[in-house]
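Field reference: sequence -> structure
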Amino acid sequence: MNKKGLYFGIAYSITAIALKLCVVLGGYSLSTFGYFYSGITSVLLLIPFYYLAVRSVRNERGGIIGGREVLRICLTIFAVGAVLVSIYNYFEFEYSGKALAIDYYNSEQFMTFLKAQAKIKAEDYQKIIAEQIKASEVSAFKATTGKLFSFILIGAMSAFLTSALMKRSPK
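Structure field:
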């Protein structure tokens, strides 16, 4: 395992967890950013850490680095980030996720969503809310796995893209 990749992976994890803690503890979980964009923002934070780690190693080696070495660094950052952020997501769901789901399904935001659906009758709203609350009582493992999917998809693709773009061979 590459030490720079490990260090940058830990730095990424700390940054992503700090962002998630600001959203959860700041009460922004049901805001537009907190609900729709905080998850993808924390995943997209991987890309600058890939760039900084590869650039640091490339500068140490006189500007020359192979594509496999770039990929190894990026995948190290990805793996460390996946493990640490998934551990955080598990505990976040256990301690605040279930209550947050109940708050969301009883919120005006969800009621507006229901009213916008033409096929749903007004008398069915309470039944749908109760069903959604019951369905949201999944295990923390399932919730973490759901968040891990986008992390794997974007993180792995951006690692391969970074390795293709940042490799430098001797001229």
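Note: The chain has a mean pLDDT of 86.
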